[in-house]
Amino acid sequence: MSDTDPPTLFWRTLLLLLLPPLLWAGNFIAGRAISAAVPPVSLSLIRWSIAALCLLPFALKPFLQDRRHYLAYRWHILGTAITGVAAFNLLVYWGLHTTTATNGIILNSFIPFLVAIFGYLFYRQTLSAAQLLGMLVSLAGVLIVVSHGNLQILLTLAFAPGDLIIFLAMIFWALYTLWLKAIPAHINRTGLMLCQVLIALVFLVPLSVWESQTATIHLEDTHTWWILAYIGIFPSVIALLAYSKAVTLVGSVRASVFIHAMPIFGSILSTLLLHEVFQGYQLIGMLTIFSGIWLANKKIT
């Protein structure tokens, strides 16, 4: 995506880049809402089981057609399935039991930097001055939002054991983003996702059996089922397909910068769904974040 793209392509690509953080912000709120009713592994298993059922009707055909390509790129596909599908969300759900939402958002904001660092170390990807500046500006906007515009809040943050778990999840997502870019664009992304989800389920089933020995699922509330349906469809299927396509179109670093939009969407959703008052610091943070995203995606001539 650049300033010279045709208008239709520009807006289509922008939608692909903004849709995942919007839906993942909703996942963050939804996951917190049912954390007491559904333990982490069970939540991940239910989430991806719903996603697999939703994918089957329109993903089975490309899945079967591309099966030979899956073998050719088996290690990248296995890696993306374990890191981005199975491990990332499981670790986030687990970590949120012992840390705050604020800490989780801060740690989540390091994903673009991890993508850039790993891309340079392992793939010799270069990082332009505009991309680095954009990352730093958008990170500043994230910190404005999570600190409520008060530097003292950031200075007095205490980090809990869950923070290490969530940071590990961020490392996995950075690896997922880089490995995803290595899978050729001619492999159908819908069929690929079905393959990744099925692999993830193979890993999650035995973990769920182990978890059931010490944790109990409570699904008596209809509200919980609606939340599970949202988690299984929107942040799982729709957001992951959009993110996969976006990485293919604009690259791993530029796509990952848009993750900084999550706290903004989280603030908007909290205002709409929880009737929280939209504050001035949120507007400043929003403008700063999107300024950073614009800088990171600006074409240098």
Number of strands: 0
- Sequence of secondary-structure elements: HHHHHHHHHHHHHH
- Please mark out the parts with pLDDT under 50 across 5 or more consecutive residues, or reply none: none
Mean pLDDT across every amino acid position? 83
Q: What is the rounded Rg?
A: 19 Å
Query: What is the CA–CA distance across the termini?
Result: 14 Å
Number of helices: 14
Shape: globular
Binned strand content: under 5%
Largest β-sheet summary:
none
Class inferred from helices and paired strands: mainly alpha
Tell me the layout of helices and strands:
Blueprint: H1 7-33, H2 40-65, H3 67-72, H4 74-95, H5 101-108, H6 111-123, H7 129-146, H8 151-155, H9 161-181, H10 189-211, H11 222-250, H12 252-257, H13 262-273, H14 280-296
Describe what this molecule looks like in 3D.
- The protein is 77% helix and 0% strand.
- The protein has 301 residues and is mainly alpha-helical.
- The two termini are 14 Å apart.
Labels describing this entry:
14 helices, globular, 0% strand, 301 residues, mainly alpha, single chain
